[in-house]
Write a structure and sequence with these properties.
The structure is a single chain. The protein has a five-stranded antiparallel sheet, with no helix packed on it. A four-stranded antiparallel sheet has the order 2-29-28-27, with no helix packed on it. With 336 residues, it is mainly β. The protein has two domains: 179 residues, Methylamine Dehydrogenase, Chain H (7 Propeller), CATH 2.130.10.10; 88 residues, Thrombin, subunit H (Beta Barrel). The protein is built from one helix and 29 strands. Helix content is 3%, strand content 49%.
Length: 336
């Protein structure tokens, strides 16, 4: 059952209290992907090795490259970014100067990774990396990152705040109403926040200063992704469902059972891709009719936690979170 929070009252109470955290909705134990079983047969397509265990991946259209982010789970484990060219062949691995927690891109050749106090910016083609500190946030543990249509970056933190950046990495606006910001996505200049502890989805206005709408969602949501049709896709891993939201206003438009612990998501112009981490599967759904229709499914590498898609070639990338590499499925939307 989907519940709409009474935001006006809760935000006003948070603003008046000297202890805002006390006014937040109660939280639950956050959900996560299933621990995948050993693969039962050969994965579809071709599998290429990937150093380390991937935590996130994206496809950059400007360079026709898959960008996979591994490691960096603690202060003693610097993150790496591996760039794969055409056909999924690794071109280079870029060592970052510290740990990182989340990945975003601009689809124009740049990747961004959240880190304590700021973010890393990676030139995908050249392999150059720089660290950018956010003004006044040296000790902030940033846990999520996304880029808006106007080019502004949005960062989320472990203590439940969303920061919309301004020029020269200043903080243009800040909202703190969450237990933790676990993931961010954007549609246009609207940021969408996923909080696993509150199992909620919330939109933030274009000015970045106010939450606009919020919904309690599912039994244990874990990941979200934006798609080209203006929707936001959410995996309810604990509840075994794909949830589909509009953003303006925030409304649940579709929900569909996806058993076996759905987790990885990729929204494309043709199909919506969802991985099932308890079964080592990826499924492509057509959302056009208002009821998700399964079109294709493929066996995957173990722990298919991250998905990315190349619209130009129709290639689906399935990236293992267990060190089993990158799976490349050409013309994935075409039934076999």
């Amino acid at each position: 059952m989907v519940l709409v929070w009474l935001l006006v009252g809760s935000i006003a109470a948070a603003g008046c209290s000297s202890h805002p955290a006390a006014t937040l909705p109660p939280t639950i134990a956050p959900a996560g992907p299933a621990a995948s079983p050993p693969v039962a047969g050969p994965p579809a397509g071709v599998v290429h090795p990937l150093p380390g265990r991937a935590r996130a991946a994206l496809f950059d259209a400007a360079t026709s490259s898959l960008v996979a982010f591994s490691g960096g789970a603690d202060a003693h484990s610097p993150a790496t970014v591996t760039v794969f060219g055409g056909g999924g062949v690794a071109q280079r691995t870029i060592a970052l100067p510290g740990p990182a927690t989340a990945l975003a891109g601009d689809n124009r050749g740049a990747a961004y990774l959240a880190t304590r106090g700021g973010y890393f910016q990676v030139d995908v083609a050249a392999g150059r990396t720089s660290r950018v500190g956010v003004d006044g946030q040296d000790g902030t543990e940033f846990t999520a990152i996304a880029r808006r249509a106007d080019g502004r970056l949005v960062l989320g933190s472990a203590d439940g705040a969303v920061y919309t950046l301004g020029p020269a990495s200043s903080v243009a606006a800040r909202v703190k109403i969450f237990s933790r910001v676990d993931a961010l996505a954007t549609q246009g200049n609207t940021a969408v926040v996923l909080d696993r502890g509150q199992t909620s989805v919330t939109t933030i206005d274009a000015d970045g200063a106010r939450p606009r709408h919020a919904l309690a969602a599912g039994e244990g949501v874990t990941t979200l992704a934006a798609d080209p049709a203006g929707r936001v896709l959410v995996a309810d891993t604990r509840g075994g469902e794909l949830l589909v939201f509009s953003v303006d206003p925030l409304m649940m438009r579709q929900r569909y059972p996806v058993r076996e612990a759905p987790y990885g998501l990729a929204g494309t112009r043709t199909l919506t891709w969802v991985s099932e981490t308890a079964a080592n599967l990826v499924v492509g759904y057509d959302l056009a009719t208002g009821i998700p229709l399964e079109k294709v499914r493929y066996p995957t590498v173990r722990q298919p936690d991250s998905l990315a898609f190349d619209e130009a070639s129709g290639t689906l990338y399935v990236v293992s979170g267990d060190g089993d590499g990158v799976q490349v499925i050409d013309h994935a939307a075409v039934p076999r």
